[in-house]
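Open question from group meeting: does this chain pack into something compact, or does most of it stay loose? Before anyone orders reagents, we agreed to write out a predicted structure and look at it together. Recording both the input and the output here so the notebook holds the full record.
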Amino acid sequence: MKLAPSILAADLADLAGALAQCEAGGADLVHVDVMDGHFVPNLTFGIPVIKALGRRTRLPLDVHLMVANPDRLLDDYLAAGAAMLSLHWEATPHLDRQLDRIRQAGVQAGVALNPATPVELLADVLGRLDFVLLMSVNPGFAGQPFLPYVLDKARRLRRLIADAGLPVALAMDGGIDRDNISQVVAAGVDVCVVGSGVFRSADPAAAIAELRQRAHVEAL
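Structure tokens returned:
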């Protein structure tokens, strides 16, 4: 299991400090939520911020585009330093074209699904993906409660991936914390994106280590 703290839940006035906490806690990735105020009702990080984050950490940046018309600035986000980049199925009518652009840039290509979007819609595109990001909250705001029914979606998607014999990773984002991370990993999730469960604790680095331990203990 890989752990990806979501920088959106950190102190936005001290992103460098948040990155240092991620590294100190042994995080595998840093998750960066990009919101445009159209696809979701919030505004977050733009291209200059992603470039700045990349200069301040050795951890790979996992960039999640929650934007309408993602093709418009896709090349700029790729050039900003993303190691992984996911587009929402609900916002990307020409998905094949955009996945090709991502992979041609040497970046891992992913598709994100809102909670109410069935995983079966990805059956024909799984072979073009490096990972799938399942939202376990409705996108747009940090700190929302976990939606338990998404665990069944994870199990169904894991079966689809296994039946196709593909090396597609499964990520989940939203409401994951110390109390449910073991259930998430047991459902077949490879990458856990955790925001409030890390950055709203008294010691984010210690919280990262505890989350990993809890997930590992369940796996044993």
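Observations to bring back to the group:
The helical segments are 15-25, 47-56, 74-79, 95-104, 150-164, 181-186, 196-199, 204-219.
The mean pLDDT is 94.
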